[in-house]
Amino acid sequence: MSIVSKSKFxxxxxxxxxxxxxxxxxxxxxxxxxxxxxxxxxxxxxxMKDLETIVATDSKGRYTFNDDKTLVRARQGHSVRVDVGLxxxxxxxxxYHGTAEKFVCSINQHGLVKKSRLHVHLSVNxxxxxxxxxxxxxxxxFAVDAQSMAQDGFDFWISENGVWLVDHVPPKxxxxx
Length: 177
Ligand code: HQG
Known about the structure:
Layout: H1 3-16, E1 31-32, H2 33-40, H3 48-57, E2 63-65, E3 71-74, E4 87-88, E5 94-100, H4 104-110, E6 120-122, H5 126-134, E7 139-145, H6 146-151, E8 157-158, E9 164-166, E10 174-176
Antiparallel strand pairs: 1-3, 2-3, 4-8, 5-7, 6-9, 7-10, 8-9
Helix pairs in contact: 1-3
């Protein structure tokens, strides 16, 4: 199995479905490395070397170990309720959200909502947003007036790997990028 498939499996377990292999994440999203390797064996065999490669080379820096590499977690992107210690921060004036054309009407009515994830994900540049949107179909990119949102009291968090997160973006802060 390729390292990319293994990485997708790790994302699924650490962000969305730990129960797939019967592992328990702690309240901060950490999994015990030893357990992850043991419990993965039947579904998607992972060696410590695989996991080290995945953590070190992931294109978006999705995962991190603790200092002694006994624990591993995803830095953001969860649908399971965990607290990864996101940092409240002041956003750049404009952020971007990539979506698919088929969602545009609904987004223009309801704003950006979290769906199954814990947050709405925003990108710092239009190119990344285009790539995120293309995962869902023909891409469409919204510009988010983050400056006005921040002035109006909305909280913004930044993950360790540079993804901006919010709870909701009402339609009035959205425009076509
Ligand atoms: C859409 C990837 C209809 C939203 C990426 C998106 C990202 C609405 C979809 C991260 C809506 C949810 C997250 C509304 C939002 N009506 N559709 N009111 N509000 N949507 O996958 O942002 O590779 O949960 O536009 O890089 O696509 O996993 O979120 O199309 O950072 O590390 O509902 O996932 O990172 O889809 O992606 P998702 P997302 P990773």
